[in-house]
Amino acid sequence: MSSEMLPDFNETSGAERKQDLSEDPEEKQKPRVNEGIEPVSKRRMKKLRKQRQWEEQRELRKQKRKEKRKRKKLERQCQLESNSDGNDRKRVRRQVVHSTLRLVIDCSFDDLMVLKDIKKLHKQIQRCYAENRRALCPVQFYLTSHGGQLKKNMDDNDKGWVNWKDIHIKPEHYSELIKKEDLVYLTSDSPNVLQELDESKAYVIGGLVDHNHHKGFTYKQASDYGIDHAQLPLGNFVKMNSRKVLAVNHVFEIILEYLQTRDWQEAFFTILPQRKGAVPTDKACDSSSQDQQAAGAEGGLDGEAECSRNEPDSAYPEGAQEEETH
To answer: Active site located where (predicted)?
Structure first.
């Protein structure tokens, strides 16, 4: 049996050896295509391509920065040469006339506001500071009752406030810093309407962002302290389609503008944002009269009566209860 089976076995073994010898040893060592290599995603390819482009353009960006610096330096030199006194900034600053009027932001309402409103008040104060610094008639700016959430927020998000110039930031209440007879609290609920600004006075703006949750609070506080109070003459000059609510910085900037122009209407329309839909009261009356005439006699009111009915209240809303900030 063994003699008959051996030939077949030998033939099979020889064929396998020939097949193994025919294969290239180097080919066996080479990895097959895509074997063991992870496919690269399109996002990764895009990222690698951008990175390669960024590296290739490094020198170009460096050269552009150099050219930009040279161009700015040349522009500054040309500007200095064109100015008669050699410094345009100094010439502008000589036109500034500092007002003796004191403008106070009362920050004693810290416990009535949530953190979101504290942050809004902080932004409004930043705007007031910036506008007063660039104004032609800057006021004596006071920030009183400074502490609590407001101070913490300023410490965390605006550490530079400690270096602010031309501002008095005090932890004390304004009544401890200024004589009672010099104080005038600006509040919409006051029956008194300002006609002129007395630059010997200190006008107080309530630093309260409360979305009308505490309406009349500043008026009550002024009455309790026994100090004078008044409202800006907004209703005498302006009719607004939106809520008649002004932010702290709006009131502050209106006063700065009035000190420069001595014109309430110009001050209001320079500062009020377009979203308020503000129009002069005389134009609002003309528009109302035309609408009434077109409607005929069915309404039972003539144009003059309707204008009188639609004229806004003379009181402007609480200066610090604005939802939106700039």
So the answer is: 210
- Give dist(CA 322, CA 192) in Å, integer: 22
Count: domains in the chain: 1
Active-site annotation holder among 106, 110, 117, 210: 210
Q: Is 210 an annotated catalytic residue?
A: yes
- HSE (CB half, 13 Å, CA atoms) of 257? 17
In-domain check, residue 142 = yes
What is d(CA 168, CA 190) in angstroms, rounded to the nearest whole number?
Answer: 27
Q: Is 234 contained in some domain?
A: yes
Task: Give whole-number Cα distances, 52 to 39, 150, 218, in Å.
Answer: 19, 47, 62
pLDDT by residue (tens digit) across 14-73? 555 555 545 555 555 555 555 556 688 888 888 888 888 888 888 887 888 888 888 888
Q: Is 212 left (phi over 0), alpha (psi -120 to 50) or beta?
A: left
Q: How far apart are alpha carbons 106 and 142 in whole angstroms? A: 8
Is residue 256 situated within a structural domain?
yes
> Is the pTM above the cut of 0.85?
no
What CATH number is given to the structural domain containing 256?
3.40.1280.30
Which residues form the domain of 236? 102-282
In a domain, 302, yes or no: no
CA angle (73, 74, 76) in 5-degree steps: 65
